[in-house]
Amino acid sequence: MSEIAGHSGLRGTATAVVHESYSFACMRCGHGWEQSYEIEHHTDADGQEFVLYVADGHVVPSPLSRPSCHNCDGHVVRIMRAGQVSSVRGAAERHHGAPQAGPVEASEAPAQDKEPHHWHLSDLLHPFQRKAS
């Protein structure tokens, strides 16, 4: 099947819609993210099948053809099953002593100058590394 991006006029004519989610990790800068897609299957006037990838309501190129990093625009991106980035982020937060869910008392001086954590490739791959025996 071929992919045709940018044909939003065809959106209502899908013969089938499949929902897929992927995790991505940039091998250049280590940025990790997740994205869900609606994959719409269509048939053109000549009977040729094609698909449209829709993310956040917009027709986008296939994430499998040539993904690019949202952080550095690099094209060396690893594609993984859904949940990989969020599970690694959760493990990292538990490892770094993130507070448990529930009511939290506000401190007297809020730490607004603290920068958000930038995810590095090592953060994403840490759970997959083997420990030496």
Features:
133 residues; alpha+beta; 6 strands
What does this structure look like?
It is a single chain. The chain is of the alpha+beta class. The chain has one domain. The protein has two helices and six strands. Residues 1-8 have low confidence and may be disordered.
Layout of helices and strands:
Layout lengths: L1 E2 L12 E11 L5 E12 L5 E7 L2 E3 L16 E5 L2 H12 L25 H5 L8
| Radius of gyration, in angstroms, nearest whole number | 20 Å
Please tell me what the overall shape is. Answer: elongated
Q: Poorly predicted ranges (pLDDT <50, ≥5 residues)?
A: 1-8
In terms of DSSP E residues, the strand content is 25-35%
| Number of H/I helices | 2
Percent helix: 10-25%
Oligomer: single chain
Main structural class: alpha+beta
Distance between the termini: 47 Å
Number of domains: 1
The overall pLDDT, averaged over residues, is 74
The biggest beta sheet reads: 6 strands, mixed
What is the helix/strand order?
EEEEEEHH
Could you give the count of β-strands?
A: 6
